[in-house]
Every structure is written in structure tokens, then in C-alpha cells.
């Protein structure tokens, strides 16, 4: 969907906005540190990567409670993204291993097996799982490590 920015451009005084931008303080955003958190999943989908040449499984979660971390991180967002198409095809890493990892991760939060039949069917199943079983239905206790290959490890799932 293309956005028509002209009405926004016309509604602003460009010189004043540039001055506000220059005078605004620098913003520093610390990465959420490794720790144990209770989160609510706010988004979960299969979508193209930014370049659009691969597909990825993408999860966005909001921290509801800091269980064990240096300081409270409540209400911050964390993400888990896994490319599931277009990976290197080696014995150590390929699309099959990437998809299997996502299937294993999903099986920890739902009470049934999730299967991969095709990318389109998998995307539809992920959407259905999110809409019908995850969104506003569960919270998850996780171990989060932004430096790890699997940044979100599920500890326990709580029904709401």
C-alpha cells in the first residue's frame, strides 16, 4: 500500500520542524539485557525479510514482568526472528533446520503439533495460532538473551 505523504508535507512548517529536530536531545535506547521475563506475544507471523528475497518467522513480545534481571524492563519489547527460506544449504544449517527450530518453538506454546506443508500453509497456520491461541490468551515466562542464536527460550506458559 503506497502512502501519500503530500498532505503531511503540506501541513508542516519545514523550517520549524528542522529546528525542532536539531534542538531535540539525543535519544539513547539500551538493548533489553539478558534475563528472565514474563511476556505477552503481540505479533507472530511469517513475512518477507526487509530485502524481500527470503521469508522469516517473526515474533514481537512485550515484557509484562521482570522476573530476574539487573533492573526492571517492564513494558519493553523484544523480538525473535528466524529466516526460514534462503538459508545456506549445509548440513549444519539450512531451511529444514530453521523450520524445525520454529516448529519446536511453537510446540512449546501450543497444545498440538504444528506441521510444515508449504510456506503459504505454514504462514496461515502461524496466523491462526496467533489469533486463536496466543494473542490475549497466554503469557510466557522466558529466558531472554539478545546475543544467543535463539534469543527467547520458553520456560513456562500461563493461560490467561
Report what the structure shows.
28% of the residues lie in helices and 31% in strands. Strand 2 and strand 3 (77-83) form a beta hairpin. The protein has a five-stranded antiparallel β-sheet. It is of the alpha+beta class and 160 residues long. The mean pLDDT is 92. The protein has helices spanning 6-10, 14-23, 95-107, 119-134, and strands at residues 35-48, 55-68, 77-83, 138-144, 152-159.
Keywords:
alpha+beta; 160 residues; 5 strands
What is the makeup of the main sheet?
A: 5 strands, antiparallel
Strand order of the largest sheet: 3-2-1-4-5
Bin the helical content. Answer: 25-40%
Number of strands: 5
β-strand amount: 25-35%
User: How do the helices and strands follow one another from N- to C-terminus?
Assistant: HHEEEHHEE
**Arithmetic mean of pLDDT:** 92
Class of secondary structure makeup: alpha+beta
Cα end-to-end separation: 35 Å
Low-confidence stretches: none
Count of helical regions: 4
